[in-house]
Amino acid sequence: MQNGLEDVIAAETQLSDVDGEAGRLIIRGVSLDHLVAGGTYEGVAALLLDELMERSFDEALLRTWLAEARARVFIHIEAADAALFALPPVDAMRALIARLPDGEDFDTAIALLAAPAVFLPAILRLQRGEKPIAPDASLSQAADILRMLTGRLPTIEQTAALDTYLVTISDHGLNASTFASRVIASTQAGLTSSVLAALSALKGPLHGGAPGPVLDMLDAVATPENAGRWLADALDRGERLMGFGHRIYRVRDPRADALKGALKPLIASGQVDSVRSELAEAVEAAALAILKARKPNRPLDVNVEFYTALLLEALGFPRQAFTGVFAIGRTVGWLAHAREQALDGRLIRPQSVYIGPLPAAA
Ligand code: CMC
């Protein structure tokens, strides 16, 4: 038995498949590169949830339902105690989500998809002393998130980049938070409880808390010329290079290329600091070369976190909010898995091997 359950198959799913050898991610029968080609958050969310809820989903319907739900959940910001907004963003988000009523599954699911998208920008604004901005029902979820964050209508390239990010991270096999969501769903505790458990799992640094350190690394490297020497020194100190390596992928993480592609139009139109993007290019190239030389038997390539960090920074999110943005995108995966598990109907209840002392003989 492995303590990390590496080799244990714990669910059958129709939702997503991660092929670590081929570097391929499939979501409901569609490969990631197809999904990100002009795909929207609402499109992938409808794909994941269709046939799992009481009603059928499509992109246009979901856009309308989410627009209405964003307005409904915004009132929870106004009703919350000020002390809650002093918490780290993910903790504040979790406290606000915990206040949502757990009703009929369809309504609950729509509220849970809208809530993190409304709560995170409001939390970030309140934390920097600004007033939260109410949602705009005429916008897509991605465009409205950026508008609620900055107070300005985003450009087409910015909205497309956030859509690509949200599509790219919508689901990814049986990762820790998704497994947590399924365990809770199997007890029939309700969708809100599944999402709260998943969010609690996500905030750990071994799961969703990694992209901030990629920016810390770029800050420390500081100039392209310094990349090779800084990275070599970091490896000499026994450190890992942030944004490289993966438990499952033995080749390049396909999500890294999806996000790198989303950055290109922003770079081409001057909406990303070119000094930052040139530094990132230099760090990526130097890291790949040095990792290949130092670890010839272990394929180590870029993972999703490297370009997540660059993309979210370019869109104006502070690094302490990156895990919260991840949660905005991953909630649909958690919900789809929770529904899939609940429809299966079987309680998840594994066993453990007792290795403690036995009672003393009488
Ligand atoms: N930098 C330097 N060496 C590395 C790295 C790295 N980023 N990743 C793995 N290695 C080395 C490691 O030192 C070990 O070498 P040796 O065999 O000589 O001791 C070898 O590769 C295998 O390491 P491992 O710990 O068995 O690999 P793992 O599959 O358990 O680790 C990982 C996966 C993501 C934890 C690791 O690659 C890492 O720490 N990366 C940096 C942090 C990071 O970018 N995290 C985000 C990952 S993507 C998250 C997601 O998909 O949700």
From TrEMBL:
InterPro entries the record matches: Citrate_synth-like_lrg_a-sub, Citrate_synth-like_sm_a-sub, Citrate_synthase, Citrate_synthase_AS, Citrate_synthase_bac-typ, Citrate_synthase_sf
Enzymatic reactions: oxaloacetate + acetyl-CoA + H2O = citrate + CoA + H(+)
Signal peptide: none
Keywords: Transferase
Pathway connected to this protein: Carbohydrate metabolism; tricarboxylic acid cycle; isocitrate from oxaloacetate: step 1/2
Pfam families in the record: Citrate_synt
Entry-linked NCBIfam families: PRK12350.1
Family the entry assigns: Belongs to the citrate synthase family.
Protein name: Citrate synthase
High-level lineage: Bacteria, Pseudomonadati, Pseudomonadota, Alphaproteobacteria, Hyphomicrobiales
